Amino acid sequence: MSAPTGHAAFHLFRDSPKHTGTKAGTKSQRRALLKESMRHLDPKDVARHAKKNASIVATDAHLNSAFVNDGSGGFRIARSVTDVLAYGDAREARVRRKIAEGQTTVNLFVVHLPKTLCVEIEDFYPRVNPDGTQRLDPITGEPMSRSRWVARDHDEAMRYFSDAVAFLGESVIPGKQDAIHGWATNFDETTPHIQLMADPFARDTKAPADKPDALRTEQNQAYGSHREIHDDNGNQIGGKAKLRAYQAAMRAHMIVRGWPVEAAAGPRRTGQPKSEFQATQDERAEAVALFGAAADAEARATAAQADALRIHEAAVDIAADAEADRYVSEYEHRQAIEEDREELYGELGAEYALLQQKRQQVDDVLALERKVLNRERTAEKAEHDRALDILRTQTDAANQREREADARARAAERREQVAAHLEAEARSTVLGAREVFNAAQALGRELDKLAQEARVRLPASSIAKIRTAQANHDGAVRRVLPRISTIQSRPDSYDVER
């Protein structure tokens, strides 16, 4: 195993908490980050985060330390995350301009201990599949594992981390050491490292005289592109160029401090979250194992071919030296050579066939998984389509029933209106007939009275007319009253069109 190389670098998280634009700001997000980085301050936090992160070794949490800015140019031991939150809140309260929603007001830095200051513990962590099962070597079938790196000397590691914090506060963070809220060491994971929380606030040079302690944000000045920051040619310097310069300065600083780190930049990280990065490393280890097995098989095949060639050359030399009796033993020599060659080629072919078989098994497994996934997707889509069809049919039926109910309601309303109109008309007719009849009776009585006083007998035609009017009135009453009763008792049976 080659000796490890040491690299001095820091990682600035791009997905730092964004301000909400309210009084609460980023306090809840900062608390969550601090609860993870300073978990050793609360045993419950240790248990919770160890359950979420398989790389955390809970029994080593006592090796961790947490620090908060003391406000006097140094740091003191943090008793709880509340100490760090309070310092950050006080810094944010000094920002003169209003902080907008989505603005970056806190940055998280991570610095790992170089491998040259660590001791490797091989096969410490099991490599796992995405479903949590043990990952097996595709060739040998043995469980795969990965190493853990621990500090070779705890005090030495603390000195390295202190130098790294001092560099960040002096050369990277806009507000210098005062802008560092706090930092914590994590000796209980795969590699010892620190997590440092800081803000991008610096002294506000344009603040009024009555606010000498006012701050302003310099996030873009430090880590992005800003009109105030230019290179020697007057061009604005981009964020990536600034970060590359910071990293180069950190490597030079740590070398001057005497730490065993490389002057060149180390391998570039992908920026993936811890869980995704570890999964990628596990898959890469499996691929390396497959490639190594293929390379070994190819090497054995090459060696077998070389052995066959040497045997053939030796046989040719023997045949040349024994030219005198070659007529006697030529056939036997050639037969032996051919048998050796066939045996060697047979072994080579068997190994190659085994390799092809394993490759085919891998391809079959992948094809089966794709087929199962496609079948599940097809079934889910068909089920979804059936559910949509049922829902559409039920909706159409409900709409049809609703339309029919509305039509019946409107018809009933029209019948009730017509019935009311006919009833009113019938009653009006009856009342009119009664009034005519009463008038006719009164007229008859008056005429009869006049006839008696004058002792005149009414003509038979007049008496007949009065009786005819009475009969017509009675007939009209008899015709209308049943219709009124029918409409009142059964309004739905009456024909609206009539």
Overview in brief:
With 498 residues, this protein is an alpha+beta fold. The chain has helices spanning 27-37, 43-52, 81-93, 154-171, 219-223, 239-256, 274-321, 326-453, 460-489; strands at 11-12, 66-69, 75-77, 107-112, 118-126, 145-151, 180-186, 193-198, 201-203, 215-217.
Describe the structure in your own words.
This protein is an alpha+beta fold and 498 residues long. The protein has helices spanning 27-37, 43-52, 81-93, 154-171, 219-223, 239-256, 274-321, 326-453, 460-489, and strands at 11-12, 66-69, 75-77, 107-112, 118-126, 145-151, 180-186, 193-198, 201-203, 215-217. The strands form three sheets. Strands 1-4-8-7-2-3 form a six-stranded antiparallel beta sheet. Strands 5-6 form a two-stranded antiparallel ribbon. Strands 9-10 form a two-stranded antiparallel ribbon. Helix 8 runs antiparallel to helix 9 (460-489). It is elongated, with a radius of gyration of 50 Å. The termini are far apart. 18% of the residues are buried.
Helices and strands in order, then pairings?
Elements: E1 11-12, H1 27-37, H2 43-52, E2 66-69, E3 75-77, H3 81-93, E4 107-112, E5 118-126, E6 145-151, H4 154-171, E7 180-186, E8 193-198, E9 201-203, E10 215-217, H5 219-223, H6 239-256, H7 274-321, H8 326-453, H9 460-489
Antiparallel strand pairs: 1-4, 2-3, 2-7, 4-8, 5-6, 7-8, 9-10
Q: What's the β-strand tally?
A: 10
Mean pLDDT: 83
Main sheet attributes: strand count, strand direction, barrel closure? 6 strands, antiparallel
Beta-strand fraction estimate:
5-15%
Terminus-to-terminus distance: 107 Å
How many helices does DSSP assign? 9
What is the radius of gyration? 50 Å
The amount of helix comes to 55-70%
Run of helices and strands: EHHEEHEEEHEEEEHHHHH
Low-confidence stretches: none
Query: Order of strands across the widest beta sheet?
Result: 1-4-8-7-2-3
Structural class: alpha+beta
Shape type: elongated
